[in-house]
Amino acid sequence: MAIERVRETLRPQFVAFFEPLKAEGGMPPGWLLYDIETDQGVSLVFQGAHSTFTIELERSDPARACLARTEQFNVYYSVVDRLDAARRTYDVDERKLFETVVACVRAREGELVLTDAVDWSARVRVREVEVSRMLAPESPRVYYMNAYVGCMIGCPFCYASHRGDTSRWLEGLPKSRWGQWADVKINAAEVLRRECDALEPGIVRMSPIITDPYQPIERKYQITRQALEVFLEKGFSPAILTRGSLVARDIDLLARFPKAAVGFSVPTDDDRIRAAVEPGAESIEVRLDTLRQLRDAGISTYAMLQPMLPLDPDRYVELLAPLVHAIDIRPLCEVPRLSEILTQIGRPGPLEPGWEEATYATIRAAFEARGVLVNPPNEPWAYFR
Questions:
Q1: Do residues 26 and 131 share a domain?
Q2: Which of 66, 172, 244, 338 has its CA 20 to 30 A from that of 100?
Q3: Same domain, 241 and 102
Q4: How far apart are CA 347 and CA 182, in angstroms?
Q5: 352 Cβ partners below 8 Å, 6+ apart?
């Protein structure tokens, strides 16, 4: 395993790249560029009078639908409306902001020096990165944190893998196989202590979008555990989502929080399906046993059913309902990648029209009958008892 120590460069580069937006008249009135995040592509978070508007850049790919495309990037948006939680489309003011950002990208993307290096070697590459920030604000008193970037569990269907590829491409790093590289935020505890002193205590989401907080290298580096120690000291509450039973190591620490929630991704009740789709991840049985240990320790627990793989709905509910307070059920993503795997193993059910909707309805009714929250409000507080 090759290990390299480096300083963070990508985020400062894009803070400077979008500096014109902060100049007088650089944006439509009423907007504040609240945050820039570069762990998974480039994300810009804007605060407006009634909404939080996020614009995301990925490497240009005509095969992926997006709202706008520049020479180098696909551009996407998401909106959280504080007055209308159901709204997902953007309004006139948000459209003006989106168009302003796209124009800025088109005007400046020629200044980026980008390469197309590829490294398909079998070597695992770890970078120990000194970072300047850890907590990304999401909403009042809710933050997001990646202890690492990259995930050595390496699920082949992971919808974040191309986001990681975008960030590496922007840094001029070679494209590597998902699961064979990781960046370790080596000074995370120091940065978190400083940030927590300056921020209002709240919830910190730690989830496996571009990484897993309990992937195997956490055994060596313990970045997640160090972060929990800081949060406990500073009065912050962790909401964790993982595929790794290593979280059981930290039950002693998690049990000391007034509020802590730990969830597991459990995409099926059939471990043969899990082994085909998530070959680098731990078994369903191990995940269930870890949930049981967490619940027995008095820690709030939940599950995530995504992707919804072939499963027996009755058995799935019977296994999970006694172990969790809530469950999130989400539709398939990265369907082409999953289609290939499910077709190969002769279990294409989730690809058939109506399968997801019917299975969701059955599972939802069964969980609710057992007193388990299903798809609670898009608010991490819902996971705390």
A1: no
A2: 172
A3: no
A4: 32
A5: none
Shared domain for 14 and 57, answered yes or no, is yes
Tell me: the pLDDT tens digits for 245-300? 999 999 999 999 999 999 999 999 999 999 999 999 999 999 999 999 999 999 99
| Rounded Cα distance, 34 and 136, in Å | 10
Q: Mind listing the pLDDT tens digit for each residue in 9-66?
A: 999 999 999 999 999 999 999 999 999 999 999 999 999 988 899 999 999 999 999 9
For residue 118, being part of any structural domain is answered with no
207 and 301 co-located in one domain: yes
95 and 141 part of one domain: no
Q: Alpha-carbon torsion 251, 128, 141, 90, what sign?
A: negative
Indicate whether 172 and 97 sit together in one domain: no
Domain that holds residue 373: 125-383
Cα–Cα distances in angstroms (integers) from residue 298 to residues 292, 301, 323, in the given order: 10, 9, 11
Measured distance CA(222)–CA(213) in Å, rounded: 9
Q: Is 71 left (phi over 0), alpha (psi -120 to 50) or beta?
A: alpha
Using alpha carbons, list the distances in angstroms from residue 158 to 5, 334, 369, 375: 27, 7, 32, 21
Pair (21, 56) in one structural domain: yes
Q: Residue 76 is which amino acid?
A: Y
Tell me how far the alpha carbon of residue 134 is from its chain's centroid.
14
Task: Work out how many domains the chain is built from and give that number.
Answer: 2
22 shares its domain with 165: no
Residue 285: count other Cβ atoms within 10 Å of its Cβ: 11
Return d(Cα 166, Cα 173) in angstroms, integer.
10
Write the DSSP string, 13-60: HHHHHTHHHHSTTSS-TT-EEEEEE-SSSEEEEEE-SSEEEEEEEEE-
- Listing DSSP states for 293-305 in one string gives HHHHTT-EEEEEE
